[in-house]
Design a protein that fits this description.
By secondary structure, the protein is mainly alpha-helical. The chain has 31 helices and two strands. It has a two-stranded antiparallel ribbon with strand order 1-2. It is elongated, with a radius of gyration of 28 Å.
Length: 630
Amino acid sequence: MKYWALGLGALMAVLPAFPLFAKLGDPGHWPLHFGFAALGVVLIVRAWSRSSSASYQLSWPALLWLGLAAWAWMAPWVTDLYSVAEWKYSAGRLAGYGAFLLLGGLWARGNPEDSRRLTTFLLGFGATLSLHYVATFLGKGADAFEDPYLVPGLLGHKNFTVSAIALTLPLVVVGRTQDYWPARWADVALWLGVGAILLAQTRSIWLGGTLALGLGLALGWRPAKNVRFVFLGGLAVAGLLALSGPVQKRLMNPANLQIRQVFWHHSFQMQAEHPLTGVGPGQWRIHFPKYGLEGMNPSVAEGVTSEVRPHNDFIWVAAEMGYVGLVLFLAFFILLIVHGVRAYRKDKAHVGHAAWMAILVLTGVYAFFEFPLERAAFWVPFMALAGWHSRGGIALPKKVYLGLAFLLLGLSGRVAWQAIQSDQTNQTVLEQNSRKDARGIVQSATDAVSSWNELDRFSNPLIYFAGMGSMFGEAQSMGQNPTFTSANFKQAEGYFNEALAVHPYHVVTLYQKANLYRYRRDYANAMATYEELLRISPRHPGGQMHYAVTLNALGNYEAAARVLIAAFLGQEYYSNPDYQRAVVEALRGMPASTRHRGLQTFIGMRSQLDDAALFQAFQTFKSQRVPKAR
């Protein structure tokens, strides 16, 4: 039993909980990239000092992946990028994965003990994630069954956690079969892993795991008695969960798939506009709003949160890296499948070949509905195994092979560390913003911006916060009932323009820039900016309301009334004095010759009712016309 490998795997699993990383916005993301990069450097140095081989085989899948990573780094020369920082992070991630592909190829032709060490490491990694998840879930009680998202696990989100667990389970079976450790260790790890996956209720993992298990059985794998008990028990628990009303409703809810269809459609539009090169690595999150936010949930429509990936790795690669990237990515997977099938045919009795084929199925299914490509907890072990099972290629001198792996790991570690530091800096900006400390917001945001840090994890341009702080501070300094002119908010306008240069479709910046023009009484620019905002997010509530206010200011009362009738607003907006004044002003000012049948009912009414009664009559009409308005 390689206890040091077991402990190292457990240590990697708890890395996101370290005090240095725990307060990050996404502690399970870049810290694990950094941790794996550091571990990889140690392994390369060890191989350099101990290996006696003069050369190593660079497999065909490795060549394809390195081609994909190189294509990502070439993006500034082949396509236009908005955010340089996001490009660096995306390309650096691909480079780091390439290093582990090389490491896997190194181990495949090295000491047979490397297999034991790798599987033992992944046993410790997966078992630690599983133990923490199951214990936390049971501690939450009935609330967790009602909403499994209450239990994020060590990786910060239940789906990220259980996907990493699912990847390790076939290897636990291999290790048990090969007697790498006591059978009871494997049995406990399997029970915990299957239990965590079932409790998390991640549909893509359930589907991928079922298909992977079915493939393993079809290929001739016959589990030991205790292992059969684990999977039969898992099926029984899955059946009981499926009988639960809340669980059944959640599993059968098509909303997530419908939203993914919107993501995918927008991605195809991106790819169609940039067929060969794509929009550029890391740029999907910027381009997505361009194609419309209608149909998104309210927080996305208002820009409070944003969509940053299409929940399908194949479509993601096609959108960001075009046909070139997609061909390399698909060819990489196809070669892995070909090599896996050949290895299985050559030695059908070896359980490791069936396990690898099962992992390929699990990865393919999960990548079709989620984004394992972004997550080191899943993709680094997968790439190490891919290198292990790859064949063919070209021979490289030892120094070239190991030097290339070292270079890629160093690059990955640098990128990950920059991302961690940026996240820490951004937390300060968000804290200042929540306190509404105008001077602190401007200072922290301007200090934070660099070529490594342009967007926060919600896709807000950092310099946008400086614009808000500047605008808020200037308004505060003018006291009660200020009168703004074209001389005001010059600095804020400059910051907003910088933000739109990084993210031209950022609805929050567009909204606040339109408001800035409205405060100045520059109604023509305000109207144009509100219209640009509403083309992207037609149901943006503040945009709809203040667009109507602007139309009233321009004397276009009928247009304002039409906007207010169609507006999808919540109760907080209906009670807003700006909204109430806008309604009354539009109804009283619109021409008697209006052709809008609904508005015609208010022509005679407005001379008989006071403002409050007229507003209530409008709200009654609106509620009858749009009964499902939120």
